[in-house]
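User: I'm writing a short report section on ligand binding and want a predicted complex to refer to. Could you take this sequence and adenosine-5'-diphosphate and write out the structure as tokens? A short remark afterwards would be nice.
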Amino acid sequence: MPVELENVSYTYASGTPYETEALENMSLKIKDGEFVGVMGHTGCGKSTMIQLIAGLLVPSEGKVLLDGNDINAKGYDRSVLRRNVGIVFQYPEYQLFETTVEKDVAFGLKHSGLDRGEVSERVRWALEIMGFSFDSIRNQSPLSLSGGEKRRVAIAGVLAVRPKIVIFDEPIAGLDPLGREAFLKLISDLNEDGTTIITVSHNADSMAEYAKRIIVLDSGRLIMDGKTRDVFSDVKRMEELRLGVSQPRLIADMLSKRGFEMPRDIVSCGELVSAIKERLIGGGCP
Ligand SMILES: Nc1ncnc2c1ncn2[C@@H]1O[C@H](COP(=O)(O)OP(=O)(O)O)[C@@H](O)[C@H]1O
Ligand SMILES: [Mg+2]
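Assistant: Sure. The structure tokens for the complex follow:
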């Protein structure tokens, strides 16, 4: 289910002294199964963009198309959007409000037409994917959980709907490195199973490792859009934009400067390790 922004602009508080143009004439198409990392400085429009994609904001100009249909057109069946596009906000743990974890995760399935048994199966599946034992967690109060657990429960609630597209706003902010790794592995697995992932992140290393495509926003405009490797290989531009360069890329460049010949397109940790191994075994070491 492809999603498309067609010349989208968005202005907050239009016509007031607080008017802010958050997005300007943005066009973008995201196809099935992509894993897109959205980068850019605070205030550049990332959250606005993803809320437009999820139908939570209506463009001031332009169109948002899901599967070719304008989601803001009169008569558009919004249930299609709700079933297919899930959004996980930054700090989703603050969104939990039901008395038990099971009820919380089942909330989004209320009008799904699934019977009780099916709902229960979905909730079990989503909680297990998020690393919980369904039977031990289902009756606990969300309030009794740790911060990390709350976040996982909140995400389970979005996944339970089985959306084809899942959007995350800074999902790894505030997680420790282990939690971050586990979380990215999880969304990567979802992506392997065919779910389209769109995620905002400031973490260049994580995006280099997991995203397949990177888009960069600056002052409400789309300024870079390409394969992760190509975007992160443009070290000069990424440095100019102060968006960070992936560490493996920096290390590969340092090694090259010291005569240890390295491919010019390394961006992820795995690639760096294999290149070094190859050089060591293949005798490329000076
Ligand atoms: N609810 C709002 N009301 C007014 N201005 C807003 C609102 N939300 C965001 N903005 C402004 O819109 C611009 C883009 O914000 P946002 O999409 O949140 O950026 P990002 O997620 O990249 O930090 C910023 O200038 C921000 O101050
Ligand atoms: Mg934001």
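A remark for your report: The longest helix spans residues 177-192. Residues 246-286 form one domain.
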